[in-house]
């Protein structure tokens, strides 16, 4: 669970961000409550802290970004979480979306390929009080077999196709959201596994940094 930022002086900014997301069409109350709870300012560098509650992507170092909250809310809404899921997240980045997930599911396993970002994310997640989260360093296109199968997989970087190991590690009926396309532009896809079949639906257009790895961009 995430302790939340009650009384940290940022509550008004979080409430404004929640209103912005509602205005843009986010309806899932659990997702909105999570955005209203997680102290996003702990997940961004000091240099951009004054913009922590803008509905904007921000730089987090190593050429990477914390995604726009509206995009993250769409991700979370798309999967329709019940609170009981074991989740794999590919691309921890700042750890902010990991913290949102920590409030919305049973357990989160989050893989980041850049060790420095993974360490900073762990520190921020600890400071935010997230306890049901494990951050791992590695190539997330391979998934993380020791903890599979996963009820949901969130891929936070753009891939040319759905990595086969991630489909294999989805539980029966499991859902995955992943941006598919080239390096310039992608479509956010919802992938559902039913037996040996995979059903794919389109959510909308997005723009993400590339998923670099054995089953992503080389
Ligand atoms: N959701 C994150 C947040 O809240 O800060 C932002 C994720 S950022 C858009 C994408 C992340 O995916 C980057 O940190 C990048 O290093 C990571 N990434 C790219 N390829 C990866 C791979 N094969 N395995 C794990 N992480 C990867």
Extract low-pLDDT stretches.
none
**What would you give as the CATH superfamily?**
Vaccinia Virus protein VP39
Span of the ends, CA to CA:
36 Å
Query: Would you tell me which CATH topology applies?
Result: Rossmann fold
Quote the average pLDDT.
Answer: 95
Number of domains: 1
Which descriptor suits the 3D outline?
globular
Determine and state the CATH class. Answer: Alpha Beta
Pairing-aware structural class of the strands and helices?
A: alpha/beta
State the major sheet: 7 strands, mixed
Describe this structure in words.
- The protein is of the alpha/beta class and 218 residues long.
- It contains 6 helices and 9 strands, in the order H-H-E-E-H-E-H-E-H-E-E-H-E-E-E.
- It has a single domain (11-206), classed as Vaccinia Virus protein VP39 (Rossmann fold, 3-Layer(aba) Sandwich), CATH 3.40.50.150.
- The strands form 2 sheets. Strands 5-4-3-6-7-8-9 form a 7-stranded mixed sheet.
- Strand 8 and strand 9 (197-206) form a beta hairpin.
- Helix 1 (11-23) packs antiparallel against helix 2 (29-37) and helix 2 (29-37) packs across helix 4.
- The structure holds S-adenosylmethionine.
- S-adenosylmethionine is lined by residues 64-67, 90-91, 93-94, 96-97, 111-114, 117, 139-141, 156-157, 208-209, 211-213, 216.
């Amino acid at each position: 669970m995430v302790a939340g930022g009650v009384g940290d002086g940022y509550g008004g900014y979080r409430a404004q961000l929640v209103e912005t997301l509602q205005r843009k069409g986010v309806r899932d109350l659990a997702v909105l409550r999570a955005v209203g709870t997680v102290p996003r300012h702990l997940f961004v560098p000091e240099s951009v802290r004054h913009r922590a509650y803008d509905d904007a992507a921000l730089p987090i170092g190593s050429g990477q970004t914390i995604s726009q909250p509206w995009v993250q809310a769409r991700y979370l809404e798309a999967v329709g979480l019940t609170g009981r899921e074991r989740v794999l997240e590919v691309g921890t980045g700042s750890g902010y979306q990991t913290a949102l997930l920590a409030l919305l599911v049973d357990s989160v396993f989050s893989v980041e390929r850049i060790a420095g970002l993974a360490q900073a994310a762990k520190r921020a997640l600890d400071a935010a009080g997230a306890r049901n989260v494990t951050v791992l360093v590695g190539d997330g296109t391979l998934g993380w077999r020791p903890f599979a199968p996963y009820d949901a997989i969130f891929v936070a970087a753009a891939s040319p196709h759905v990595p086969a190991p991630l489909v294999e590690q989805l539980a029966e009926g499991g859902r995955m959201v992943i941006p598919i396309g080239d390096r310039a532009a992608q479509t956010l896809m919802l992938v559902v596994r039913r037996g040996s079949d995979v059903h794919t639906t389109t959510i909308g257009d997005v723009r993400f940094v590339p998923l670099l790895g054995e089953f992503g961009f080389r």
